[in-house]
């Protein structure tokens, strides 16, 4: 079937390619003409402006947006102004599910359907297929099923089981009304933060397993290492990550990627350690707080990222100021 | 080759079976005669007492222990007293790696080798193979390689890659001197706690996604839910766990098990929520603390387990006592 | 000066008493007539209905609300409908500062001023005075200064210092525009959660300092205590809390209360350990998340409370389900 | 009475001065002769070498050590070699209580008493008095009571209450056998970390309360601020810290110091934000883990310090590596 895709970054462009491989017709648009041209070369129908993009779509139109969360709301309004009753807007980006809940109400009043599709799979989705978490009205979701089936991994991938879980074993799931897709994807990303941090912390402990062989200051500002004989292991991190992939309890796709990254460069020298967050982890935590769910692991993972962004600096200065005030402790310089 | 296995619980018995399938000769012993008898039926050589067990082993003997951490040290001493120079003791249990470091020194003085083998795979290891993290002297580890190769998943399982990571792609790895195997397994389990908690917290958030449809008290002791319209999702947890297995970033073996458990019983009614810990998570955290490694996610996961065991009760009572003291807040009864 | 107080619970009633002691005229109203009668006995002017209450106030009227957060917004609307331009509504409750920001905009359009006053001091405020964190337009705040000065501890209490901090040494502070008062009070309470939890966790550790003298199971589901000789202290908790009040770094008013509570009953037997939260801790954390501030301590304190309310049950069941799935671990029953 | 003090740093020197003011005779020694000379000027008896120091003490001798934890054990051995049965060694430093437990056993065999005295009060102790947490045999503790009574704040300070708490209201407490003093002091410092972090996190939130007025990138690597209208407060941090000192629930000595530091320099420009830890927080956490006590707040506070020391760098790099691997996310440079 035909679909219009707007926002041709890493995710959007690859999704178009996967859809075209699956026999779908893709009309594409991006503010960057080069991104459009690339996909036209691969067989997509390109558009140079929003109006042209909408004009090339047959009714009922489906416009799928893959945009940064910060601008999605605005673009939804622009697109909606050009659509007609019966048309569908799909938001496949990392938008806040609140927006989906609110947009659906506004668009429904104008006869438009809003479908939010949490899309996981990253740059590997083109080959692996994307995991799709879908929210929206039944009719619109049903209408788009051929698209979802193509984007998702499908029956061939992984150990799909049972039929009573509906389409879940195929890699896509209608999770509920508008907002439910982004909500489930949001929690997916919250979990992702926690899982990633668990590996990162563990690997960091392994990296320090040789601390007993290293020099250590002996002053009142440095905590002593009481039993250095227990910290004399020179662990091969890439090999450990690899061995854990084979038969251990913690095998996972993220571990596969971790092993690959460590094998490529055990020192991870190309990275500085500033870990971004795109909002999903924050929203997950806010949902946990609103509904009273303890989420100490997910919050710890988020806060570690924020700290890596430099956001604890003032708090840290204040701690040093207190230590100076009560104990005369003079701060050591940063390494 | 021949190996003696002592401790025939869930782990030990299955390892014997896998070894016998691989053509090895297994002499087995357990304080529970029925456990011995079961394996004798399957082809193992049984022993009714420790001395008989040792006596049935050809030199150089290998005694592999699969025992609870709390008694391993004592049994190592008993076994060592019956062995001779050149013999090998393997500890495959969840022992503290400190003990391995210390045991190795003591046993080496008596001409014995101590090999610690962190063993992951659980009840699935019989079929999947076990992931083995090995510490000990080179000669002893080399001698045991046929055993390790049989216990581990081997080349057929998973996407093994590269040869420069040694045996890691086969599922076993010599991680360093005595203690290194348990150390790496310890951190593996620490990570496991974190990964498990990430899924559990996320699923708990999904479960509460319908809070806006439920009644809520309006008193000064109950935090209000400001925007109930954003919490009206009735999420199908088994289906979500299943869909995440197909193409998402958080696919993992633990997620596979989670999906299975939720499919079998979405309410998890057979469980009460008291989560045990067997020590590895605690030791991981102590190693992190000793070496100065921040581990907020791993510690949060551990503390959640301890709290589930009732260990925060006094702290909680004290918080209620403070609230009563400054604000006259009368405690609500536990649900 | 004259003030109308609505909401005569623990906080509201005592504030009226302190104001009357300071020579102010208080008109009071509550849906519970007994609460009104009590204060009338003490000299307040009582009202039996909202209209009567408003009617007894001279213009420009000041209506100070001390209500649960869950109903404050609604009552503000009801009161505003009876007021006239130039009148002032004060919200002294634990309301979300978002509401104050929004209410101020709405009320300003009707010529009314909205002043939010975060009020700390609990049941002790009558004697100690209340710490007031104030947000709102300059004119209204200035108009109410005699009220603030009476409610606050004033110069006599504590070691007030400097004049360049304005009225802060007197115990009240105009923190900024509408919402700023509740915002600062919200963060105050967030800190309060953290400080309380720090004492509670520490006291819990002291309580377990004798663990090495107690029996401990030796099974695979119980983490062993490796060095019992280091945990044979029978600590007198009330005495420790008391000694810390005298010269230690952690002396505080909350410690004073803790010492009092432990002295009254070292076992805290009247408490069950369900710790309520009234919303402020949650909002603090949401503000931290919105603005990207790491708050691991404040969030840990909040999550411990939520867990004490039973909110981690499903997550805990899922952890047990996973342990059973991979390791065959059978859950121990809850104590 | 006479006492020998060895280790004349910030703490030791001031304790000598307070003891001399109280009429006690102090023999003093330090490897830094200038430190000795300073106190001789103030009336102390100085010694230029360890043997001379011991030689100047009348029997039964009391040698009080105020040394960095990393060297205390070694010095205890050196001192013990010069003492005779009936003599007392006091360790008033921030030593690990394990050492006190072990030292007491070793020294008792030689007829010496070991008393561990956790000493809180910092640079203010000279004037305020020190809070003393004491472990050791009854006789030795009794013998030293005049010293403790002088060092502690005494009855005049604070709101001492009740007699049934023994000497606790005077600011010193015999907490139990050897090790109990350091154990209680260790937990005191663990709590201190938590309390300090609570204030620091809260102040950091207040500092960011104006985030809605600031520019923010709108890209996929930056979490959007959805409701900037709620973050337009320009909070005066020194004034807020000051007002909280007067009647609020979170009044404390650490808040007094915080207010002082912020008043002196609201930007805390002299500090870089590297927060040291001297070991006590780590040991508290290890004790919590050993005894199964959940300590999420205390651990979060510790880990924030470790992170400020740069110890999460490798973990952070690994997180960025994973994000690059699954999503092609290119790391933003550190600010």
TrEMBL record, chains A, B, C, D:
Is Oxidoreductase found in the keyword set? yes
Which pathway is it part of? Carbohydrate degradation; pentose phosphate pathway
Under the GO molecular function aspect, what terms does this record hold? NADP binding; phosphogluconate dehydrogenase (decarboxylating) activity
| Keywords in alphabetical order | Gluconate utilization, Oxidoreductase
Q: Which GO terms describe its biological process?
A: D-gluconate metabolic process; organic acid catabolic process; pentose-phosphate shunt
- The chain positions of domain 6-phosphogluconate dehydrogenase C-terminal read 181-333
Q: Which Gene3D superfamilies match?
A: N-(1-d-carboxylethyl)-l-norvaline Dehydrogenase, domain 2, NAD(P)-binding Rossmann-like Domain
What family does the entry list?
A: Belongs to the 6-phosphogluconate dehydrogenase family.
Q: Which PANTHER family match?
A: 6-PHOSPHOGLUCONATE DEHYDROGENASE
Q: State the protein's name.
A: 6-phosphogluconate dehydrogenase (Decarboxylating)
This chain's source organism reads Kumtagia ephedrae
Q: What is the lineage of its organism?
A: Bacteria, Pseudomonadati, Pseudomonadota, Alphaproteobacteria, Hyphomicrobiales
Gene name as annotated: gnd
